[in-house]
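Chapter review: from sequence to fold.
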Amino acid sequence: MAEKNTLKKRTSLGKGLGALLGDSAPVKNHGNEEKKVSAVQQQVVEKMDEIPVAAIERNPYQPRLEFEENALRELADSIRVQGIIQPITVRKVNDHAYQLISGERRLQASKLAGLEKIPAYIRAASDVQMLEMALIENIQREDLNPVEVALSYQRLISECSLKQEELGDRVGKKRSTVTNYLRLLKLPPEIQDGLKAREISMGHARAVVNVESIELQLALYEKIVKESLSVRKTEELVRDIIQGKDPLKAKNKAKEANPLDFELSRLQSGLSSHFGTQVKVAANSKEKGEIKIPYHSKDDLNRILELLKYS
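The token string follows.
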């Protein structure tokens, strides 16, 4: 391999992930009880080696399930020429198997490039640490939309038992920044979809979430998209709405949100946060309906079933 003798020192993936990967001591949870790490894992805390690609299992907690095919092939072409610049990180399961902690994209590209071995940092990590590191690495992707970031933050809080202050330390963000992202999950699904599609920005969404009425939120969202309103103009409209004015000039006076619709929207946002995927809740006039929980792979299905405690 081109970089066998010239592997570059791993650059930090961020304050939080770097701290996690660099923590070689047993990690204590918030109840001061040590998280269990197997004896095999404890023996390989600070080691780097070239390991067989075929011996690496994917990270069962990996939140990123889809990779852009062309970009993956471009990375594979680069690896064929330059080798692996930044080693992946794994934990040792036994003498013949490893489990990926971070570097899913590099691993997939290495397989496309036909590599038989790949440089890897071998670390000790509990299941909770695995989830935490996978989520933090995912958060640091440049192409992540605000809703995906918010859902990852929510999973770190609910599944890793982190408080907002602790989460801020993990991801290198102020608590106010974390709070602003989490508030996005209170928005109706239609507006969250608009954020994902880049129809509105984080600034627009932060302004709209201050409006209490879901119906007014949706009307404001439609106006932003239709008229390509700036964030500043949106903030002005929100201030007018909060002061009791009617800046939207709707044909029909805005009605109070139907209590059932309001509750279903909150339920849908809560379920989406809990399961880490965009749950859909629908109901008809007879109060009958359905809940749809999408999954993207067998591993993702098993993750959801675990959250449902289904066996």
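Two observations follow directly from the output. The first helix runs from residue 15 to 21. Residues 1-45, 250-260 have pLDDT under 50 and may be disordered.
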